[in-house]
Amino acid sequence: MTVWDQLVGQESVVEQLRRAAAGEGLTHAWLFTGPPGSGRSTAAKAFAAALNCEVDDVMGRGCGVCAGCRAVLAESHSDVTFVRTEKITITIDEARELVAKSGDRPSTGRWRIVVVEDADRMAERTTNVLLKAIEEPTPRTIWMLCAPSPADVLVTIRSRCRAVNLRLPPVDDVAALLVERDGADPELAQQAARAAQSHIGIARRLVHDESARERRAATVRLPLTLSTVSQAVNLAEQLVRIATDEAASSNEERDAQERALLLETLGVAGDEKLPPSLRAQVRQLEEDQKRRAKRSVTDSLDRTLTDLLSFYRDVLMVQLGGGVEPVNTELAAEIVEFAAASTADVTLSRMDAVNTTRQRITTTNVAPLLAVEAMAVSLI
């Protein structure tokens, strides 16, 4: 299997990157954009692997089996740096470290590559630190930035990058991938792919985690019970709780593994009292985990609101007579009844309220519960 096989439903992007890896149109800076689930980071990683692939045939680079490809895909290649943040933003100090590292010549591969997966999570002054390095890179260095859209990156940065625009893959392609790669039941895979709106990572989680499917089902049913302010407040509490439970289920096992690994590295048994000289390192880990937990809740709440938005999307399609297959097929009858009780203008207003709340919780320090309560009241 080549590195390109990971890019489901992205044939035009694969062709563009394959040719660039062969030297046709290769440039020093790239901007990968596309909606969540489109595979921005996956495309950047595949491209990085192809650029440092060890095969002699230039058009065959990206074999996926040579040492270079395997090291990049495992994120262990000495010349390829992956940057992602589990905090709210990438700090200016982290950006300075990237600039310093980008100046080194590649040690084993053809190219030194810096992949910034969360380029949209940099403040303007942080992004400006990267500007000169991207504008005038050292020889054999390539930058790859990933963001939801070009508008999420400063114009001074995106004007110096070659654009790679990805789209969400078709539902059938995502379902086929889940069946082939994960051994999922075809019917469940189809339902998960549609519910995830073609987001491969979310679809995989829905296939393997029954509790995740139950939480999503509870989310999309909430508007059916909303008619009073007290119900709106209750809805807000449920949405935040669903998001918190989702984040906790993702972090709990990982946190325990990280703590156990750190204690093992420090030579401390699990039930042994921690010496004072080692407490600072454990405390630092706990602080990092708390910051990650906050980011996880924010991301999970954003995903929960996206699921809620899919309900109103289905309602709007019914009201407009769009003839588009609904995301929430299991609620088809309820959606038709709900749509008949309002107008398309009202539904659009409700969708705008949900999107505004998503933006507030991901870009400001607003208390999530207060933001969701205000949104829920506007949905009545």
Structural notes for this entry:
The structure is a single chain. The protein has 380 residues and is of the alpha/beta class. Helices cover 58% and strands 7% of the residues. The chain has helices at residues 11-21, 40-51, 67-73, 92-102, 124-135, 155-158, 171-182, 186-195, 200-208, 210-221, 229-266, 279-320, 332-340, 344-363, 368-378, and strands at 29-33, 80-83, 112-116, 141-147, 162-165. The protein has a five-stranded parallel β-sheet with strand order 2-3-4-1-5, covered by helices on one side. Helix 10 crosses helix 12 (279-320) and helix 12 (279-320) crosses helix 13 (332-340). It is globular and about 65 Å long. 38% of the residues are buried. The model has no long low-confidence stretch (mean pLDDT 87).
Short description:
By secondary structure, the chain is of the alpha/beta class. 58% of the residues lie in helices and 7% in strands. The protein contains 15 helices and five strands.
